[in-house]
Write a structure and sequence with these properties.
It contains two helices and six strands; from the N terminus they run H-E-H-E-E-E-E-E. The chain has 115 residues and is α+β, with helices and mostly antiparallel strands. The chain has a domain of 80 residues: 2-Layer Sandwich (hypothetical protein PF0899 fold). A three-stranded mixed sheet has the order 2-1-6, with helices on one face. A three-stranded antiparallel sheet has the order 4-3-5, with no helix packed on it. Strand 3 and strand 4 form a beta hairpin. The protein is elongated, with a radius of gyration of 17 Å. The two termini are 35 Å apart.
């Protein structure tokens, strides 16, 4: 389960940030998670709880914003949502997309801290 190693990396990053800023008390970590990231949200949430258990982040939350897949369609010359995750085709015209614009993210975007 690679979600545990990802969660451990998130916890380590948050601990370093808290220490760097003079011992901030982080109560939540905010993450953007793309549908094509290869990470299972529920497994990541459970792994985060395990990874943060014996750290300064114990009791903190992992807040996950799920990011849908958006494709660039050369036929329409526009960004469109994917018609399905199995077939990366334009939802309007059905042609194959030439580029994935969003949906592969796995990014920590912020922290909630308690004063």
């Amino acid at each position: 389960m690679h979600e545990l190693s990802i969660a451990m990396g998130i916890v380590e990053m948050a601990e370093e940030e808290a220490e760097r800023r003079g011992g901030l008390h982080i109560v939540a970590v905010h993450l953007r998670l793309g549908q094509l990231s290869g990470v299972v949200k529920d497994a990541l949430l459970a792994s985060y709880q395990m990874a943060s258990e014996d750290t300064v982040l114990k009791g903190s939350r992992l807040v996950v914003q799920e990011v849908p897949v958006v494709l660039y369609c050369p036929q329409c010359d526009a960004q469109r949502p994917a018609s399905s995750l199995q077939w990366l085709c334009c939802s309007e015209c059905g042609n194959p997309a030439s580029e994935i614009v969003q949906g592969k993210e796995l990014v920590v975007v912020g922290w909630e801290v308690e004063q």
